[in-house]
Amino acid sequence: MTMLLPSPSRRRLVILAYPRVEHEKDYLYHWMPFSLLTIAQRLLADGDVDVVIFDGNQRTAQEWTAFLDEHLDRAVCVGVSIMTGGGQIRHALQMVREAKLRPGCPPVVFGGPHVNVLGEQTAAHDLVDMALVGPGQRSMPELVRCLLGSGRLEQVPGLLMTRGGQLVKGPANTPKTEMMARYPWQLLNVQEYVRDDPTVAPRTLNYVSSQGCVYKCQFCYELTYQRAWSSMPADPLVQDIAELVEAYDLSGVKFYDADFFVQPRRAVDFCQALAARQLDVAWAASINPNDVLRSRKQRLDLLGSIAASGCRRLLMGIESGSDRVLRDIVRKEITREQAYDVAADIAAHGILGCYTFIVGFPGETDAEVDETYDLLTAISQLTPRPETRVHLFGPFPGTPLFDDALRYGFEAPQTLEGWADFDYYDSQTPWTSAATVARARAHTRLVKQPGAARAEVPA
Prior knowledge:
The chain has 15 helices and 15 strands. The termini are far apart. It is globular and about 60 Å long. Helix 7 packs parallel to helix 8 and helix 8 packs parallel to helix 10. It is α/β, with parallel strands linked by helices. Helix 3 links the parallel strand 3 and strand 4. It folds into two domains: 157 residues, Response regulator (Rossmann fold, 3-Layer(aba) Sandwich), CATH 3.40.50.2300; 211 residues, Alpha-Beta Horseshoe (pyruvate-formate lyase- activating enzyme).
């Protein structure tokens, strides 16, 4: 593989690319590329380079070509973020092929969730000059400094690259708990991401205020963070939201954190600060049932604070209605009874609940699947009537249940190209029947019409 290193006198720009993701055809929104914003914030804070971001969910292939024509001649490197599924890997490879057609294309660096678990497989691809495993906000600034002439590539945390036919590996880049800083919003056209969210508000912007998760769900990619959880403190977070509300006339914020409520005290502080600012902004977030159970033990009125601050919707993964599946397969650390109790408490506070379930786990019986649908039906009787979604189990590399899936007959792709069309919304396992898929689709109820849910949820 030939790689042209940049001249430090000319190229002082980092291109960060987020390839297109093919969600379900009825998916309403694309979130901002927060992983790239996090990396960009660190690069800009160092002051060595400028940063530009290309979001393939908002721009066309033709616009990518024009973007390269404008920026590539002074680029230090091109950073590409990929996750497993949704066609993002396929679009990433198409974008990189286009970049490689240009003389003097700088090193192309792949990172993101897929790379974190299949780094060596990613680095082996001909279009990949380097791969970065682990948190990119630590490894990317180190890599850029090396490319500008200060430091050795072998010292970059999480680096994987082929040189002289040999794999070069940098030191481990393990997740660590740290404070997150304000995003460099100026790198995006924020207005493009404002949507009428039917469950939140007419002008809703998505936001990620934390990284990682402390729980141990065996199917989840968040395990790659090794239970390290980083977040923005409550006061700076509310201040940033206040500025976004003013700048873009927002009426809602939808948090895409894996779990916004890992620290109940921080969550309560956020709710109180938000209410004190009287921003008149609705919001939504994801919650783990254990967050509510822990807040009760701590005598914190978590749900009361959430409701009083304008929260309209809480997304909660229940996963299964079988206590054995919850305990032995998922390791959700809750029981069926506790899951229903928390869902009922959310409804009692006038908050719209959205509850996700998964069927098709390796080793799950038909009777246990029936238990899941029984629990879903019971929860659906709550008022306000919740949203429900039934996912099909997808074997994600790097998770414990991926190994179980292999033992049950799942055949995993062996190359980066092979993962290009992995679709987490369709059945990927040989034991999942067409009838299982149809039943899951029939039990999925989502609010998709703007304003439809807001009529049900008390203001």
